[in-house]
Amino acid sequence: MLIRQMMPAAGVIAAMLCLAGEAGACEFYEAIDSRTELFDKPDAGAGLAVAILPEATQACVMEEHSDGAGNTWHRLEFYTVANVKYNVDGWVKAPSGAPPAPDGTSVAAVTAATPESARGEASAPEPSAKAAFFSHGWSLDKARSRLNFVTIKKGTVVETHQFGDLTGSVTPGGEAEVKIRLESVSTGIDIRDVRMRFLLFDVEQFPEATITAKFDPAQIDSLFDNAQISYELPVTLSIHGVSKELMVPVVISKLGDGLVAVSSAKPVTVSTADFNMQDGLQKLSEAAGDIPITPSSPVTFELAFVPAS
């Protein structure tokens, strides 16, 4: 099955690891020194580019094919980079007599069959690579993170808002914390932002909301191999001086070695009654002309984490 999610240029690697026994099926190995396009079929100019192989790749070639334009194509079963093996099923143009691709990518010359020792090393990620992935902490990447909430007024008017200032971290042991600067609320209307800050959130007394959580390292460990997992995450939300425990379904994605994303699998409902904010909501309603506002909000988030420096 063609895996179409492994796009290193977009920062996404979602290929599954091969079994070591599959290496023997290769006709020969090909060293690819530059970033190279992988196509769904060997058809000059007509195939769909489905992935970009990174440089320093060792590819398993299953067969050759010549197209109508006289180009030779190699079908790949898997490739390895830094001793990690990824399944694919696609075609790269062979170098012999083939002009460079428009973006300057090219395929290096075909090499002899890879020694058995090298195949064994590439059949699975080195334990040190996996250990290194989980050994350091992670810091929230504010520029690539967002937290949105929805309000409903007059029973039918739905509006989406967000917070622009988030900070956070995850320790190697799985202890996570995200802080939300409530003054950074953004609704698209300046006067409404001011009213929310001082009437609803009371930022002078409660400037931040805090989310704390604890990941189970034994369950998160599978993220290294599977690239994406679903996880029921117990969190504690603290806002307006009140803390409440919630169970939040999340999707955790490994977007290469330098980025991990945690996103809500479905909206999480937060109620003003749970955090003693009914009076603030009433003041907000009165300030807007006694407009009825639904006392609960669906919250969604996409949080990106990079290795802690």
From TrEMBL:
InterPro entries: Lipid/polyisoprenoid-bd_YceI, TTHA0802/YceI-like_sf. Pfam families: YceI. Residues 137-306 form the Lipid/polyisoprenoid-binding YceI-like domain. Residues 1-25 form the signal peptide. Keywords: Signal. SMART domains: YceI. The keyword Signal applies. It comes from the Bacteria. This is YceI family protein. The lineage of its organism: Bacteria, Pseudomonadati, Pseudomonadota, Alphaproteobacteria, Hyphomicrobiales.
